[in-house]
Design goal:
By secondary structure, this protein is an alpha/beta fold. It has eleven helices and eleven strands.
Length: 295
């Protein structure tokens, strides 16, 4: 029974992506090569690790056990690289961070850039996820630091305040909703066409789920990769959009748009840093948590 780090990393990526294809992409492997590696791992162990379905894969019980050990070994390897990197001219550390869309676009760029400027030999692997997904992945040890909305149950994770924000509806200044209600429920705007983010974005999946709960589809007319892009097309009258209030206030300085706060409880965004165990973090990861709290 012999596995290399590529095998372990591939399996972790497949488990987290729920797909052999996406796991192979994250591992920079061809699909055929990834499938062969998984098959050889299963043959070596004498047990199936994955249940393969048309829409993706899920873990068997042996697969869950294997994933737990794979994460432990990969974490130990990363810590080894971090410690040994201090004696080389290369990177001295690596930190994996999971973040929801709001924090990723509005708050992390400035805070992370300051941290990385002060630590030129450190790299940060930053991935966007839904807050609920982040809690589970941090609890499993898939990443060191998560940033989630305060509306999700954070379980036994250790948490620290990060930022506050809220989602607002943005419309063109000549839109019928502009200058009307002081607040508006999300369910009442589902008759309108939306300008949104790419379907893979955590926020867009979140809003689509909220629309589905209201028994309505989210009528997306166009999808973009940034909140600023959403505001620009809203200004042109293409549709309405939902963005963080910080984005809307910045955009209003240069665009003819209006912002209307959403009255839904989930629109209030108190963001938290979460970790499985602060004491168990590497010194660099602890330093990043402290930096994000105060910068």
């Amino acid at each position: 029974m012999r596995f290399d780090l590529t095998d372990l990393l591939l399996f972790r990526n497949i488990a987290e992506a729920g797909s052999i294809t996406r796991g192979a992409e994250r591992s920079n492997l061809a699909l055929a090569a990834a499938s062969t590696r998984i098959r050889q791992m299963e043959e070596s162990l004498g047990a199936a690790l994955l249940v393969r379905r048309r829409q993706g894969v899920s873990l068997t019980q042996p697969g869950m056990t294997f994933l737990q050990h794979a994460r432990t070994l990969l974490d130990q390897t990363e810590r080894l690289q971090e410690d040994m990197g201090r004696y080389t001219d290369g990177l001295a550390g690596h930190i994996r961070v999971l973040s929801n869309t709001n924090a990723l676009t509005e708050f992390l760029p400035e805070a992370l850039s300051a941290f990385l400027a002060a630590h030129p030999h450190v790299s940060v692997d930053l991935e966007e996820r839904l807050s609920g997904e982040i809690v589970g992945l941090i609890a499993e040890g898939a990443a060191e630091i998560g940033i989630v909305a305060g509306t999700v149950d954070r379980g036994a994770l250790e948490t620290f305040p990060f930022r506050r924000d809220r989602f607002v509806l943005v419309v063109a200044q000549d839109h019928p909703l502009a200058g009307g209600e002081a607040q508006i429920p999300f369910a009442t705007i589902l008759d309108h066409e939306f300008v949104g983010l790419d379907r893979s974005s955590a926020l867009q999946r979140f809003l689509a789920a909220k629309a589905a709960r209201a028994g309505r589809p989210l009528r997306l007319r166009v999808q973009l990769r940034s909140f600023d892009g959403v505001c620009r097309l809203v200004e042109c009258g293409v549709g309405v959009g939902v963005v963080p209030e910080t984005t809307a206030q910045r955009a209003k300085r240069i665009m003819k748009i209006a912002a209307i706060p959403l009255s839904d409880a989930w629109a209030e965004r108190e963001l938290f840093l979460c970790v499985r165990s602060y004491a168990g973090l590497t010194p660099l990861a602890r330093e990043l948590v402290n930096h994000l709290q105060h910068n």
